[in-house]
Amino acid sequence: MADLRTRYLGLDLRTPLVASASPLTGSLDGLRRLEEAGAAAVVLPSLFEEQLTAEADQVGRLLEAGAGSLPAALALDDYNAGPYGYLALVEKAKASLQIPVIASLNGVTPGAWVEHASLLEEAGADALELNSYYVSSSPGLAGSEVEWRYLELVGSVRQRIGIPLVVKLSPYFSSLANLARQLVEAGADGLVLFNRFYQPDLDLDTLEVTPQLELSSSEELRLPLRWIAILHRKVPASLAASTGVHTAADVVKVLLAGADVAMMTSALLRHGPEHLRVVEAGLRDWLDERRMESVGHARGQRSVRDPAAWERANYITMLAGYPDQVHTQAR
Ligand SMILES: Cc1cc2nc3c(=O)[nH]c(=O)nc-3n(C[C@H](O)[C@H](O)[C@H](O)COP(=O)(O)O)c2cc1C
């Protein structure tokens, strides 16, 4: 039977199947179910900068008073809510799970809230995922400046923790490969490609903005697939595929492109944690049928050596082949 073990952020994982941040990973019960079903690691839902900014003042006062420890922070009044409840969840998850627990912070500006990263480490998190998404709506703000903000934030978090740091990115950058390299230089040990954004719609009866939360489908895998294939071996960092991983075939694809792990949220919300068993069995079957001894044999076989030439050639071939494709589909 194929060996499914993989390494991600320096952590040894039983398989490449990781449960990404979602309401399922936000309770001890959900986390236990995910572990039982075979998740090799879990990412907790994000704590937001906005949640932390107010509490950061309190934490700062505690640190100044020499109470720079987790118990002191946990002793704050709102222990059971927000940031402190989160620390408690990390502690409980670490006490009852065998698999690595990755905490998650979501923010855009370096500031006092970043101190929380060290509390998450103290609470026992095996790694920290930093989810940063800044929508630049100012015509006066250059793209390079937006990128600089990301780098500054990553550097600032890196200084505060010793555990691995992974950055969850959006695909909306003009030179993603360059930014990826700079993020690694700033201290990221890995990249999650990609976060998925929920674009609001307009209701034409009420003229209200309607927030839409639709789960993903396998069609959305193409974007992470392409970027993992491009970045594999180009940046010295772990690569996680997120968005559109639903089936064993999806997992095989991202491994072939060069991913170290495949993350799932929508599929697990739709089918329940037990879906992990189906995906794991399918992945093992695929490798066994091709006599591939391990995940390592598949990894990166379909990465891209000369991305620029490949992209252009593919684009031209695809456009040139369009009449044939339409003809074939119509038949
Ligand atoms: C209900 C819901 C809650 C989520 N919460 C978070 C979160 O707190 N932090 C985060 O980084 N991503 C969050 N995500 C994004 C997922 O972790 C994942 O990156 C995204 O859904 C794409 O993967 P998928 O195609 O497997 O769903 C959430 C997604 C959903 C559907």
What does this structure look like?
By secondary structure, the protein is an alpha/beta fold. It is 45% helix and 15% strand. It is built from 14 helices and twelve strands. It has helices spanning 28-37, 49-64, 70-74, 82-96, 116-122, 143-160, 176-185, 222-231, 248-257, 266-271, 275-289, 295-298, 307-320, 322-330; strands at residues 6-8, 11-13, 17-19, 41-48, 101-106, 127-131, 165-169, 190-193, 201-202, 209-210, 238-241, 261-264. The chain has an eight-stranded parallel barrel with strand order 3-4-5-6-7-8-11-12, surrounded by nine helices. Strands 1-2 form a two-stranded antiparallel ribbon. Helix 5 links the parallel strand 5 (101-106) and strand 6 (127-131). Helix 8 (222-231) runs parallel beside helix 9 (248-257). It starts with 5 loop residues before the first strand and ends with a helix. Mean pLDDT is 88; it is low at 76-80. Flavin mononucleotide (FMN) binds at residues 20-23, 45-46, 104, 106, 131, 168, 195-196, 216, 242-245, 264-267.
